[in-house]
Amino acid sequence: MTWKLGRRWLLAAAVPAVAAARGASAQSWPAQNIRLVVPFAPGGTTDIVARLLGAGLQERLGVSVVVENRAGAGATVGSETVARAAPDGYTLVVSNIASHGISPHVYRNRMRYDAVTDFTHIALVVTNPTVWVANPNSGIRTLADAVARARSAQGLDVATSGAGSSNHLMVVRMGQLIGKELNHIPFRGAGPAMQAVIAGQVPMMSDSLPSASSHIRQGSVVAVAMASAQRHSAFPDVPTFREQGYDLASDSWFGLSAPAGLPAPIVERLNRETRAFLSTEAVRARFAELGGTPGDMTAADYAEFVKQEVAKWAPLVQASGASAD
Q1: Residue 43 — φ and ψ, nearest 5°?
Q2: Omega before 239 within 30 of 0, i.e. cis
Q3: How many beta carbons lie within 10 A of that of residue 16, not counting itself?
Q4: Which CATH code of 3.30.420.10, 3.20.20.30, 3.40.190.150, 3.40.50.280 fits the domain covering 33-128+252-320?
């Protein structure tokens, strides 16, 4: 009995000691390099967002922010790595509509993390519409061209950054609208998918606007349709899906998250520095050029936003029949 009482006393004494250690750690943060995980291959919108944000945080925090690409399984591989990391502020992830909105339903039997409870969601970074682009030599200039190809014996291959992305669901939904399934060609990120379209290996791609914008301007791909409610100010000559007779609109989103249990002072600091970075004129101009809209949410608001996105996409994924299980 004496031993049990002593053990309880030791445990009780340990609780404030651990809390004090965490407090001291949070106060001294950051004291080393930060790893920012991108759950897609280089070259896509998630990667672009990460490198812009990483450079901004590096300048504001005074430590190196190292971007690490860990692609696979609809952005779930890299995200799982972060979910299992220590909540010390030195491992972060670019959470996004795929990894934390859609893939939890597409990969529901293979998911090893909860998109809501296994993360500390810190800040919304940017939102942007989907755009469909085609190889200039494909003969596709409009959605009517794309639909005609889809209904032909040849069929229509459409590349995306991977299964479970919002761009994947756009492909599924477009097939439903025209009554002809499109051939979804998933890649391990938008960068490899875009290179396949430019090389003529795949005629068309459903992509997020920031990663496609430079290729559209260079003429290496043709912008066929924008999935926004109205024409985008950065690309006013590109008609919307709705203008071409198809009621489709889709925005992607990208944010900053960490493992669950990140101390509140670190969450507050990261949220404050991220929002300050996003509010600068140069950053807002850069995102506008890419076709993105910078976010401005508290950590609590972003956490609630992710929770709502998970709930929102469940019935839509189920109705689409999209599954990677």
Answers
A1: 105, -15
A2: no
A3: 9
A4: 3.40.190.150
The rounded distance, in Å, linking the Cα atoms of 147 and 109 is: 33
Domains 33-128+252-320 and 129-244 share a fold: yes
Extract the tokens encoding 42. 């280089």
Which residues make beta-bridge pairs with 133?
A: 205, 223
Q: What are the tokens at 84?
A: 């299992």
Domains in the chain: boundaries = 33-128+252-320, 129-244
| Domain covering 129-244 in this structure, CATH number | 3.40.190.10
Closest Cα to residue 191, out of 42, 51, 67? 42
> What is the chain's pLDDT, residue by residue, as a tens digit (325 residues)?
333 444 444 444 444 544 444 554 678 999 999 999 999 999 889 999 999 999 999 999 999 999 999 998 889 999 999 999 999 999 999 999 999 999 889 888 888 899 999 999 999 999 999 999 999 999 999 999 999 999 999 999 999 998 878 899 999 999 999 999 999 999 988 999 999 999 999 999 999 999 999 999 999 999 999 999 899 999 999 999 999 999 998 889 999 999 999 999 999 999 999 999 999 999 999 999 999 999 999 999 999 999 999 999 998 888 777 777 6
Q: Which two tokens stand for residue 323?
A: 């599954």
Structure token pair of residue 99: 């990894």
240 secondary structure, DSSP code: B
Please name the residue that has the structure tokens 């469940």: 314
Q: Give the predicted TM-score (pTM) of the model.
A: 0.82
